[in-house]
Each structure stands twice: as C-alpha cells, then as structure tokens.
Amino acid sequence: MNAVPELAVVVPVKNEADNILPLVTEIHAALHGVVEFEIIYVDDGSTDATGQKLLEAKGRFPQVRFVRHRASCGQSQAIATAVKHARAPLIAMLDGDGQNDPADIPSMLARWRAEPEASREKLLIAGWRANRKDTSSRRWASKAANAIRAWALRDNTPDTGCGSKLFSRALFLDLPRFDHMHRYLPALTIRAGGTVESVVVNHRPRGAGASNYSNLRRALVGVPDLLGVMWLMRRSRNPVVEIPPQ
C-alpha cells in the first residue's frame, strides 16, 4: 500500500470484538475495484478482544490500519484520531456496530464525484436512516432530538446522528473539536461555509454486542452541547479571501 488511497473508511470502536471481521469484510466487498481505499480503526480503550480481532482483520485485509487509545476518550475523539491517521484526502465514516451499511459508500462516493471540484472541499454527505432498525424508545428519542436540534441550529439535516457520512479530510480538520462533536457535523460544516446533502441509507439491527450509550446519557450531554454549538454558530465569520496583485 505505497500509493496514497483516495478514500479512508474510519471506524471508531469500543468493545466491538464480534463486529470487527464481519464489518471489515463488508467494507472490502463494497469498495474493492471501486476505489483505492484504506480502513482506519481506532480502538477507544476496549476491554474485550477488539484488539485481537483487529490484528486478525489486518492479517486478512492489507487495507486495514488501526491505533488504540490507552483509555477511552469517547467517539468524537476516536473519529478525530482516525481522520488524523488517514492518508486519503476523502473520509467515509461508519459506526463500528455494523448498523451502518458499507454498501451505501459507493453511491455516496458517486454523488461526491458528481459535484463540481471547487465545491467538494466543503461538502458533507450525511446519511439519513429513513427506516431505522432500532428500538421504539431509541427511535422516539432520536426523532425528538433531531427536531430540537433542527429548530435551534437550522442545519436542514433530518438525521445528524447517523454514522454514515462522507467528507473531505481537510474540512474535518478545520472544524472545532469537542466531546460529542460528531453529532453536530452538519451544523459545523455550515458554520465553516460548507454545504450538507442528506441521502437515504440502509440501516440494520446491531449485529452483536450492546450499545455504549443510553437515551438518558445522550440527553444529559445533549443540552450543553446544543447550547455550545448555538454559540459557535452565532460567533462564526467566513471571510471571502482575495489575493491582490503582488
């Protein structure tokens, strides 16, 4: 893998040992022959066999690279670590629980390529789980959270919590980073002068393991996060930079 790939699939995980090999296999099947790609995993302080399964995946698929947080730092930091370690200029993001379908990535990539080159740098393509395969309580909580967020931030995105996203590495590295910032990528992209397009993606039941987050925990951190992003949106400035004759 000496050539720089076009696409990096970044996957943050914590205690997802049983989902590693099935998801890597699906990513490879979806992208092999479509685009030159790498797969970047960040093990966010797992206490199960996640690390061993990542070694097995790397042995079977040369596109796999991974790093580990010594202690858990949360999903947003794991995503940031993965993006920093990626070589590719384009990032596809997936959750590590197998609920996001890697088969959606080629169509998202095609949509990206169809955009004028000058517009791609600040384009975020966000997955929309129109038919979610979650419990009724989680679907209700997500619907309520999306409605409140859309009213407060006007980010025109029906499902910011979907892990399936595609964006440029440069755009992400230019965004402010904080815990749980991955839930606000559309608003932060708009704040940076970018555009967001939502596309319907497949959503599946969790393959194995259990979620690391409860509805109550999401709600408790959601209020201060929302207020903080509202402040960021109101304090943003996007100058039009001109280079005069030298």
UniProtKB/TrEMBL annotation:
GO biological process: what's one of them? Answer: lipopolysaccharide biosynthetic process
Q: Which UniProt keywords apply?
A: Cell membrane, Glycosyltransferase, Lipopolysaccharide biosynthesis, Membrane, Transferase, Transmembrane, Transmembrane helix
Residues in domain Glycosyltransferase 2-like?
9-172
Q: Which GO terms describe its molecular function?
A: undecaprenyl-phosphate 4-deoxy-4-formamido-L-arabinose transferase activity
Question: What Pfam families does UniProt report for this protein, alphabetically?
Answer: Glycos_transf_2
One Gene Ontology cellular component: plasma membrane
List, alphabetically, the CDD domains matched: DPM_DPG-synthase_like
For this protein, the record's PANTHER family field holds:
UNDECAPRENYL-PHOSPHATE 4-DEOXY-4-FORMAMIDO-L-ARABINOSE TRANSFERASE, UNDECAPRENYL-PHOSPHATE 4-DEOXY-4-FORMAMIDO-L-ARABINOSE TRANSFERASE-RELATED
Q: What is this protein called?
A: Glycosyl transferase, group 2 family protein
Q: Which organism is it from?
A: Magnetospirillum gryphiswaldense (strain DSM 6361 / JCM 21280 / NBRC 15271 / MSR-1)
